[in-house]
Amino acid sequence: MTRLRIDLAYDGGGFYGWATQPDIRTVQGTIEAALHKVLRVPADDPDEPLRLVVAGRTDTGVHASHQVCHLDIAESTLARAVGHMKVPAVTALEHRLQRLLPTDITVHHVSVAPDGFDARFSALERTYVYRIADRSSEVDPRLRGCVLHIDDTLDLEMMNRAAAMTIGLHDFGSFATPNPGGTTIREVKRAYWTRVPARPLVPEAVERTIAAAARAGADGPEYAGTGVADTGAGEGGYVTPTLESGLICFTIVADAFARNMVRSLVNACVAVGIGKRDLDWFAGKMAVPKREGSTGPIAPQGLTLEHVAYPADDELASRAEAIRAVRTLP
After folding, report:
1. What stretches of the chain show up as alpha helix (H) in DSSP?
2. Catalytic entry in 7, 59, 118, 171
3. Which of 194, 211, 238, 316 has its CA 20 to 30 A from that of 290?
4. Is 59 a catalytic residue?
């Protein structure tokens, strides 16, 4: 058997989460169906299930700009991907998946995994970002699928004081649901709120070049050497901002996350940020890991899995073995 590593991204808006469910569109189910088609394996073949193992299951409506999964496959089955292509089987599979999958899933890369690699258990940490447009932000309707709009002005200082309480090894039972036989103890390495500055889309140096060319009387659709179209604004005129300018982003990095953990933490921080709750309330939720209805998850569309980190190849197996142990607090 060969273990493949698949790096991918998806827009979660059209999926009922990652995990396969009968008669429901999911990311895992869609990719596995494509694998069965490309490799000409019957869906009910017990000898070649083509089952994906993922770094982190995402909920309904949650996105991933960089997700990782692995697939165990027989070499003879993998060879079927080649067909008439004059490339290695792994490359052929990558190309065929890229063409067959719907546009809300992108396969970045398919590779042979190093020995000991497990997409889920070998991971060192995962990074999630939650994006919000508050009353101080310009709401861009193009981002409605990946940004949550809140009609309040958020207090980032108070939200960061709340987020700081999550850093370290804690039982997040107030904000998460354990898997059967699992735990809600997790180690958060970084957690902070920032507002994206209003950066120009066009670098300042290019803007100066455009302005200088305008003063010199240049015309035409582009100024020579800049590669940037003239907007007619000239020096001191309108500068196109980056798409995320003004958004509020919550970035959280942890060894792993329990179900609904990130969205529930975001909801609790937002409650503090709008003055609905205070820091003592948040501290109490951290101290007493018990769900009681006031710390449910916020809407999913603002959340994106941004990155999954792994150790060096010679540490993959030992990391997987260590992380399989049920976490406990000291």
Report:
1. 27-39, 75-78, 89-100, 156-164, 204-215, 261-273, 279-287, 316-323
2. 59
3. 194
4. yes
